Amino acid sequence: MEIWKLESNPANQTLIAVGAVVLGAILMAAFHDLGGASASSNGLAGFLLGVGLLALGAYSFIAGNKKQVTSVDPESKTITVTSSTLFGTKERTIAFDDVADVVIGRMGRTTGMIVFYYPVLKLHDGEECPLFPPGYFYEGGHGREIAEKRREKLLGYIGR
C-alpha cells in the first residue's frame, strides 16, 4: 500500500474571511453614512453587524487560516496530522496500534439541512481524534458517503 495523503484547502478559508471583511466594511460604510451610527436609529444595528463581521473576518484571516495535511503511512504504521497557521505548525502522530476504532462523526443538525460527516479515530485511552474535520475544506466535501469511504479506507490501512 502507498501513503495516503489528503490536504485541506486554505484558499477557501481565506476567501470566506476576506468576504466577511468586505461585507462588514460595506455595512459599516452604508449604515454610518445613513446616520446608523447614532443611537436613535435602527441603522445602529446594521453598523454594529458590519463591525462584527469585519472583526470576525479579520480574526479568521489572521488566526483561523489553517492548512491541515493528514497522511496515513502503512510502512511506518502511523497517521500523521499536521496543522499549519501563520503562528506555527503542530504535528501529531498516531500509531495504528493506538487506534481502537474508526467511527463517523457528525457536525450540524439534519433539520438545519447542513450536516458535515467525517471519520473520527477512537483511541484506546478513550480520546477521540477527528480526521478531515469540517472547516478545513478537504477535497470531496463532507457528505456521509465520502466519510464512509474514508472510514473504510482507514480501516483497510489499519488492518481491521
Main sheet summary: 4 strands, antiparallel
Element string (H = helix, E = strand): EHHEEEEEEH
Strand content: 25-35%
Assign a percent range to the helix content: 25-40%
Mean pLDDT comes to 85
Instruction: Output the structural class.
Output: alpha+beta
Quaternary structure annotation: single chain
For the terminal residues, how far apart are their CA atoms?
Answer: 15 Å
Rg, nearest Å: 21 Å
Put simply, the count of helices is 3
Q: What strand order characterises the main sheet? A: 1-2-3-4
Overall number of structural domains: 2
Label the overall shape.
elongated
Q: Low-confidence runs (pLDDT<50, min 5 residues)? A: none
Strands, count = 7
For this entry, give a set of tags.
single chain; 160 residues; alpha+beta; 2 domains; four-stranded antiparallel β-sheet; three-stranded antiparallel β-sheet; 3 helices; 7 strands
